[in-house]
């Protein structure tokens, strides 16, 4: 097991490289299997054939960016997109502002949700509350 960032051997049980401090598995410069430098963008190590990038497995539980974005745009004043993504505190705040003002301030939360919905769609907000990347 080698650091993919600096190419130094690392303990398979270590979470970070003791040499460069990089989290294990991050970096694309060296082969994790043999420690040889790999060409940028190469899918496998030319030295040993080991895959340089772990095949990304789409998370079946990933929240949908499209759904969250549309919820924000259309139902932002109820914080539905934030409930969906698990940002419960923010979601409750949006609902309370709308409801307690008898919807007098719903345009505020509506615009807030609209902006967040757009940020979700363009990728400025790209994780849910647990830090899981959003799916399509
Ligand atoms: Zn390192
Ligand atoms: Zn290799």
Helix-strand string: HHHH
Helix content: 25-40%
Which spans of ≥5 residues are poorly predicted at pLDDT below 50? Answer: none
Percent of sequence in beta strands: under 5%
Shape: elongated
Largest sheet: none
| Radius of gyration, CA atoms, in whole angstroms | 21 Å
Number of strands: 0
Tell me the number of helical segments per DSSP (H or I, 4 or more residues long): 4
Structural class by SSE content: mainly alpha
- Arithmetic mean pLDDT: 91
Distance between the first and last residues' Cα: 33 Å
Oligomerization = single chain
Heteromolecules bound: zinc ion
Please render the helix and strand layout as text.
Layout: H1 65-75, H2 80-85, H3 88-100, H4 106-122
Helix pairs in contact: 1-4, 3-4
This protein binds zinc ion (ZN) (2 copies).
Overview of the molecule:
It is a single chain. With 136 residues, this protein is mainly alpha-helical. It has 4 helices and no strands. The two termini are 33 Å apart. One zinc ion is lined by residues 31, 33-34, 36, 45, 47-48, 50.
Summary, kept brief:
Helices cover 35% and strands 0% of the residues. By secondary structure, the chain is mostly helical.
């Amino acid at each position: 097991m080698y650091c993919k960032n600096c190419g130094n051997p690392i303990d398979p049980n270590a979470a970070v490289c003791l040499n460069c401090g990089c989290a294990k598995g991050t970096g694309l410069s060296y082969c994790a299997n043999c420690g040889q430098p790999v060409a940028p963008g190469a899918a496998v190590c030319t030295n040993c054939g080991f895959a340089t990038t772990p095949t990304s497995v789409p998370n079946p539980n990933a929240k949908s960016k499209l759904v969250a974005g549309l919820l924000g745009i259309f139902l932002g004043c109820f914080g539905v997109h934030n409930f969906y993504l698990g940002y419960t505190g923010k979601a409750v705040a949006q609902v309370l502002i709308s409801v307690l003002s008898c919807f007098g301030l719903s345009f505020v939360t509506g615009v807030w949700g609209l902006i967040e919905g757009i940020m979700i769609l363009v990728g400025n907000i790209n994780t849910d509350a647990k830090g899981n990347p959003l799916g399509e």
